[in-house]
C-alpha cells in the first residue's frame, strides 16, 4: 500500500493521521502468498527499521481505540440499532434464518474486487459469501414464509484506492442485515410477455410496498436510538433525526445530473435536506428486476432503451447531522435493494447478459446436461426451474435489500469524532489503512 504522497514501494504502516512508511518493494500478491507468521515477521521487521515496534503499533492502532470513548459510544448505538431492526422484522412476521458462509456460488457483484475467496472442503471448492442473495431467494420458497432476515457475514476483497488516498468507507469483512420478503402478486410468463400494462401496474404497486417497508424499518430503528442513546449521540457531536415517510426520491438520471462528476450520493444529499433519501432506477445486479426485458417474439429490449422507470432498484442513502452547526455530513449509500427477477426465463437471460454464465442450461430428464459449463450455478438454476403439479413456477417472487451495518453507522455518525470506518469498528479491515490485518 502506498503512503499518502509517497513513491511506489512506500508501504503505509499507520493510519493517515499517524502515517509512517518504509521503503520496500515487497508486497504480498496472489503469486507470493506466504504463511501469516512470515507476514507478521516481515511486518515487525519493517516497524523496527523505522524505529518503532509491534507493541507500539498495536497500542497506537488498536488498544488506544478499544479503550477510547468514540468506539464505546458507537458500540452502544450499534447495539440499539441492530436490536431495533431485529425487533421490527420479527414483529412484521419475518423469520430469522441461518447464516450461509460457504456455497457453490455467491453474489457476483457489479463492481470489481481483488478476487472471490474460496475454501476447499472434502475435495470440493466453495465460495465465501459476498452476500447471501441467492440463499435469501431460496429461503422464501415456502408460501407460508412471509419473509426472512439474517445478520449475514460478507467478505468482499475490495481493491485499495489506486491513488493511495484514504477513502474511509470500505471494509473487506462486514455485517449486513439481509432482508427478503415474498411479493403477493404472482405473474406467469404468459402475463409477463403479453399483459405488460397490467404487470407494470402490479410491479409499481409492489415497488411502493418495498420502499414503504424499508422506510418503516428505518423510522422504527432511528426512533429507538434517539430514545435510548441520546448521551452517546451528544458525546459524538451528532444528532439523529427521526425521519418521516415518504423519504425524498431521486431517479438515477436526475441524480447523475446533480453530481456533475462528483459522488452521486453526496451531490444528492445536498439537495435532499434529509438524513435519509432514495436513489432509484440504477441498473446494477443481474437479479434486480428490469421490466419489460423479454419480448413476446423471443427477443430482448435493447440495453440502450432502458430507462430508470424500467429498473426497479432502490438505494437508501444516509448522511450525518452535526450537532454544533446543524449541517449535514457526506452522504453514503447504506442499503441496496430491489424487486427481483422471479421467472426462470429472464433469470437465465440476465445471468447470460451480465456474463455470469456463458450458456443456457440444457435440462433433460431432471439433469443439466451442460452443468459443467455453468460455473456452479447448476443447483440454483435447477431450483429456479421447479414447478408445481399444475405447471406453475415454485420460485418465489420477492423484494428485498441489505443494510450494511458498519456503512450505516459511518454515514450517521460522521462528525467531530468519526471520519472513517476504522473509527466505528473494533477490527475493521479497511483496504486503505494497513498492509496487514493483525486481528
CATH domain topology of the largest domain: BirA Bifunctional Protein, domain 2
Helix content: 25-40%
Radius of gyration: 23 Å
Give the strand content. 15-25%
Which residue ranges are poorly predicted, with pLDDT under 50 across at least 5 consecutive positions?
1-31
CATH architecture of the largest domain: 2-Layer Sandwich
The total count of helices amounts to: 12
Order of helices and strands: EEHHHEEEEHEEHHHEEHHEEEHEEHEH
Give an overview of the whole structure.
It is a single chain. The chain is α+β, with helices and mostly antiparallel strands and 439 residues long. The protein has three domains: 10-59, no CATH class; 68-342 and 396-424, 2-Layer Sandwich (BirA Bifunctional Protein, domain 2); 357-395, no CATH class. Helix content is 33%, strand content 18%. The protein is built from twelve helices and 16 strands. It has helices at 36-49, 54-67, 69-91, 133-139, 189-194, 196-228, 230-236, 252-259, 264-272, 344-353, 378-384, 405-413; strands spanning 10-12, 21-23, 95-96, 102-103, 118-121, 124-128, 147-155, 173-182, 238-239, 249-251, 276-280, 313-322, 328-339, 363-364, 367-368, 398-404. Strand 12 and strand 13 form a beta hairpin. Helix 3 packs across helix 6 and helix 3 (69-91) packs across helix 7 (230-236). The longest helix has 33 residues, at 196-228. The radius of gyration is 23 Å and the shape is globular.
Amino acid at each position: 500500500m502506498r503512503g499518502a504522497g509517497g513513491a511506489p514501494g512506500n508501504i503505509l504502516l499507520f493510519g493517515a493521521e499517524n502515517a509512517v512508511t518504509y521503503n520496500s518493494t515487497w508486497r504480498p500478491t496472489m503469486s507470493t502468498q506466504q504463511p501469516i507468521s512470515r507476514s507478521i515477521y516481515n511486518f515487525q521487521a519493517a516497524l523496527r527499521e523505522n524505529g518503532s515496534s509491534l507493541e507500539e503499533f498495536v497500542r497506537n492502532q488498536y488498544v488506544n481505540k478499544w479503550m477510547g470513548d468514540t468506539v464505546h459510544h458507537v458500540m452502544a448505538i450499534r447495539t440499539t440499532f441492530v436490536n431495533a431492526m431485529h425487533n421490527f422484522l420479527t414483529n412484521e412476521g419475518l423469520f430469522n434464518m441461518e447464516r450461509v458462509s460457504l456455497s457453490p456460488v455467491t453474489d457476483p457483484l457489479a463492481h470489481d474486487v481483488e478476487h472471490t475467496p474460496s475454501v476447499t472442503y472434502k475435495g470440493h471448492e466453495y465460495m465465501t459469501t459476498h452476500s447471501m442473495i441467492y440463499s435469501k431467494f431460496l429461503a422464501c420458497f415456502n408460501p407460508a414464509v412471509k419473509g426472512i432476515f439474517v445478520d449475514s457475514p460478507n467478505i468482499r476483497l475490495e481493491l485499495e484506492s489506486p491513488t493511495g488516498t484514504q477513502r474511509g468507507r470500505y471494509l473487506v469483512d462486514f455485517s449486513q442485515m439481509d432482508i427478503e420478503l415474498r411479493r403477493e402478486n404472482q405473474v406467469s410468463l404468459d402475463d409477463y410477455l403479453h399483459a405488460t400494462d397490467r404487470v407494470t401496474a402490479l410491479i409499481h404497486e409492489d415497488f411502493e410496498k418495498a420502499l414503504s417497508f424499508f422506510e418503516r424499518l428505518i423510522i422504527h430503528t432511528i426512533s429507538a436510538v434517539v430514545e435510548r442513546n441520546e448521551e452517546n449521540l451528544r458525546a459524538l457531536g451528532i444528532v439523529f433525526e427521526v425521519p418521516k415517510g415518504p423519504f425524498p426520491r431521486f431517479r438515477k438520471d436526475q441524480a447523475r445530473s446533480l453530481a456533475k462528476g462528483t459522488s452521486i450520493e453526496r451531490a444528492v444529499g445536498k439537495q435532499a435536506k434529509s438524513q435519509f433519501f432514495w436513489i432509484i432506477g440504477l441498473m446494477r445486479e443481474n437479479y434486480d428486476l428490469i421490466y419489460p426485458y423479454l419480448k413476446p417474439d423471443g427477443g430482448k429490449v435493447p440495453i440502450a432503451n432502458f430507462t430508470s422507470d424500467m429498473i426497479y432498484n432502490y438505494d437508501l442513502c444516509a448522511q450525518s447531522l452535526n450537532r454544533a452547526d446543524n449541517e449535514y455530513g457526506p452522504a453514503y449509500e447504506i442499503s441496496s435493494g430491489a424487486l427481483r427477477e422471479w421467472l426462470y426465463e429472464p433469470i437465465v437471460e440476465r445471468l447470460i447478459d451480465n456474463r455470469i454464465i456463458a450458456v443456457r442450461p440444457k435440462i433433460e430428464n431432471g439433469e443439466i446436461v451442460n452443468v459443467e459449463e455453468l460455473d456452479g450455478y447448476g443447483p440454483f438454476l435447477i431450483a429456479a426451474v421447479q414447478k408445481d403439479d399444475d405447471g406453475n413456477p415454485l420460485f418465489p417472487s420477492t423484494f428485498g435489500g441489505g443494510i450494511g451495518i458498519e456503512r450505516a453507522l459511518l454515514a450517521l455518525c460522521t462528525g467531530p469524532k468519526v471520519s472513517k470506518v476504522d473509527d466505528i469498528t473494533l477490527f475493521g479491515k479497511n483496504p486503505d489503512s494497513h498492509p496487514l490485518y493483525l486481528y
